[in-house]
Design brief:
Helices cover about 30% and strands about 30% of the residues. The protein has helices at about 15-25, 40-50, and strands at about 5-10, 35-40, 55-60. Strands 2-1-3 form a three-stranded antiparallel β-sheet, with no helix packed on it. It starts with a strand and ends with a strand.
Length: about 60
């Protein structure tokens, strides 16, 4: 499976509780924090739901 690097670039202040929980589920707790995940449908769905807060790039 491919891997993706997810980085938070926008603040979670004034976001819905669901979006905040999605960030926590991805393992992101702070601004500019990067995490690496497998490229699974579940992870891609979470990233898609909060794509306006994140940047995503493929890791080789």
């Amino acid at each position: 499976m491919a891997k993706i690097k997810v980085k938070q670039v926008r603040s979670q202040i004034n976001r819905t509780e669901r979006q905040k929980r999605t960030l926590i589920a991805l393992g992101i707790k702070k601004m500019q924090q990067e995490v690496i995940h497998e490229d699974t449908p579940q992870i891609l769905g979470m990233v898609h739901a909060i794509r306006h807060l994140l940047t995503v790039e493929e890791v080789k």
